Amino acid sequence: MLTKNDESLCHQIVSTFDHVDSSDRQWYERTWLVAHANSGEVMIDTGFGKYTNRNVMDAFGGVVVKGTTQYTVRASRELRPDTASIAVGPLSYEVMEPLKKIHVCLKENNYGISFDIEFEGRMQPHESDISFTRLYGAVMHNACRYFQLGQASGKVIVEGKTYDIKKNTWWAERDHSWGIRPIGAPPPGAYWARPDSGQPESGLQPFPQIGKLASHWLTIQFADYGLIFMFYEGGDGKAASVQGKTVYPFGDERFPMPVTEVRYRIESHAKTNKVKSLELIVTTADGVVREISVRPLGNTYHLLTAGYLGGYKGWLHGKWRGPYAIDGEKLDLTDKKVLQDLSGGVDDTLCEFKCGKDIGYGILESVVIVA
Predict the structure, then answer these.
(1) Poorest-confidence range of 138-147, 160-169, 258-267, 338-347?
(2) CB neighbour burial string for 95-109, b if at least 16 within 10 angstroms, e if fewer
(3) How many angstroms separate the first and last alpha carbons of the chain?
(4) What is the CATH code for 24-198+207-370?
(5) How many other CB atoms sit within 10 Å of the CB of residue 202?
(6) Residue 334 to residues 49, 286, 299, 322: CA-CA distances in angstroms?
(7) How many angstroms separate the CA atoms of 223 and 200, rounded?
(8) N vs C: which end of the chain shows fewer Cβ within 10 Å?
(9) What is the per-residue DSSP string for 270-330?
(10) Whole-number Å distance between alpha carbons of 243 and 145
C-alpha cells in the first residue's frame, strides 16, 4: 500500500513504507516522553507505539500529582490505512523539528486529564548501543534507540485545575526505539506475566526462571551536561552490565564520554521493591569519577498502566483491541493495595541528582522483579 512517505527517496527495503524488513510479530516502534515540574509537584508521562505486523497503533498519556494520585488514558486503533500519523483518539505526537522539537497532545476526554506540550531538545541526542539477546535460539531483543534531554512548555489540566508548563522550571526527557522485543501476551512462565495479561500462546517451552532481575535507566540533566546510562544490579554493589554516555548542550563541542563503570548503593521499599534511595559512583572513559546522590521527589508514574510488561486490566503493548478502543482510570497512590498491585513493573521516578555543587533533575526508570 502506498503512503505519502513513499514519495521520499528514503526506502531501505524492497517494499513500501507500510512494511518492515521482518515478519516477526514482535516488531515494534515506540516513543516515550516525560515532562516534569522540577519542584516535584506534577509529572507527565506519555508514549506511542506502532506494531506494523500486528496492524496496531496504541498510545497512553499519564499524569501524577504530588505523588498521591495517578491518572492514565490508554487508546488503541487499527494501524492501516493510516500508517503515517502518530495519533490515537485524543492522543497525538508530532515532530515539529527533527531531533529538536516535539509536540505532544492529549485532548479533552472522560478521564480527568489533558495536556498540550512542546518538548525542546536542550542537549544532543544520545544513540544507545543495539540490544540483542536470544532465548532458545529465537531473537528476543534486537533493538536500537536514542535519548534526548530537554525542556517543556505548554499546559496540563487535571480535573479542572490548570498547571502552566514553563521552560525554566519544567524539564523533559524522551526516547525513540524500534526493532524486536517482547510485546503482547507474555510467553508461558514469563516473570512479567500478570493474571490479567491474557492467555499465552500454547505449545511453547516455558520461560526460564531467573530469580531477581533489577535494571535501571537514568536520564540526568545538569545545567551544562547530562548523563544517560543504564545498568543491571550485580554483586558487591557493582553493576553487572552498564552502557551509556555523557551528553552536552547543542553547540558544545565536548566529546560524549562512554560510561565505563557504575558502582551503587540502593535502598528499596520492603514490600514493593521500589527504589527508596540511590547513591552512584559513575566512571567515564576519560577517567572522571562522579559521585551522584539520587533523591526521589515523590512522583512516580507506574508504567504497567500504560501497557508495559504484563500490562494492566488486559491492556498490553501491541494487543489487538479492535478498530478503536479507549480506557483509563484514576488511582490512589496512598493505598497500599494499589501500590502492591503496581509492583513488579516499570516505574518512572522523578529525582533530584546532586554531583558536587551541581544539582540536576531527571528520571530513574526501574524494573525490579523478584520471581
Answers:
(1) 338-347
(2) eeeeeeebebbbeeb
(3) 45
(4) 2.40.370.10
(5) 6
(6) 30, 44, 12, 34
(7) 47
(8) N
(9) TTT--EEEEEEEEEETTS-EEEEEEEEEEEEEEGGGGT-TT-BTTB-TT----SEEEEEEE
(10) 13
